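Field log, afternoon session.

UNIT: design team B
ACTIVITY: writing a sequence onto a fixed backbone
BACKBONE:
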């Protein structure tokens, strides 16, 4: 079943008319017809099975709720130095599939790519659309927020665990920070990642002074678009999968 998001409140047994954007995808692109079943996620992040009653406007009957848990046990906020080319799109798409709750980008000192202010709104609109599509495809109940922040704003973030992925820590053999952070069973985790050029010593000093812990992500040096996906996979393995084996 295809999944769609709506800002409307939904209740079991009610009928709802879904937005034109959902109709375009469901009816014009997927060519769904009356009687077809879809999944709809309401504005309070509750998912339901729904049956199409009419295609124009797209009207559905809200059937039974879907209770299978799909979200990570830790709300993960990724903060990524702006990468080159279309790597931000890849990060948003795959990080959404892997369960990120919030994805931020920032202009960093050693980055070769910069996002100029006049172009940010267009880039964020594109990334938001990618996040929604990935959330629908992976049958999530949340669409991650995608925004642009400054280093100063990053230092003011609060979370149960605050990490910065640092390749020098990995080279030195550090491998415990992420595991130790997750052993405390945090409900929220923020992690900073550098761009292709890495984070400067000054940026690392600023982050550690504001409570971030440097962490190695294994013995290999990961690309800027790979490191956030490694972290999310590790969070899943160390919380969801480990919990199932206990």
């Amino acid at each position: 079943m295809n999944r769609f998001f709506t800002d409307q409140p939904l209740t079991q047994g009610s009928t709802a008319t879904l937005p034109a954007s959902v109709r375009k995808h469901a009816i014009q692109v997927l060519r769904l017809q009356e009687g077809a079943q879809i999944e709809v996620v309401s504005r309070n992040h509750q998912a339901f099975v729904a049956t199409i009653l009419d295609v124009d406007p797209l009207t559905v009957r809200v059937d039974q709720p879907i209770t299978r848990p799909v979200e990570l046990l830790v709300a993960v906020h990724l903060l990524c130095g702006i990468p080159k080319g279309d790597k931000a799109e890849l990060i948003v798409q795959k990080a959404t599939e892997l369960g990120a709750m919030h994805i931020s980008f920032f202009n960093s000192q050693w980055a070769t790519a910069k996002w100029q202010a006049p172009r940010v709104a267009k880039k964020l609109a594109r990334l938001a659309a990618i996040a929604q599509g990935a959330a629908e495809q992976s049958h999530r109940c949340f669409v991650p927020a995608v925004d642009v922040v400054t280093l100063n704003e990053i230092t003011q973030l609060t979370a149960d665990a605050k990490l910065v992925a640092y390749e020098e820590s990995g080279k030195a053999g550090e491998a415990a920070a992420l595991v130790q952070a997750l052993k405390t069973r945090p409900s929220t985790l923020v992690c900073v990642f550098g761009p292709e050029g890495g984070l400067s010593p000054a940026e690392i000093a600023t982050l550690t002074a504001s409570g971030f812990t440097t962490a190695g992500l294994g013995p290999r040096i990961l690309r800027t678009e790979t490191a956030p996906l490694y972290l999310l996979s590790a969070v899943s393995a160390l919380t969801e999968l480990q919990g199932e084996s206990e």
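LOG NOTE: Helices lie at 20-29, 87-98, 117-137, 151-155, 167-171, 177-183, 201-209, 227-245.
NEXT ACTIVITY: expression trials, pending approval
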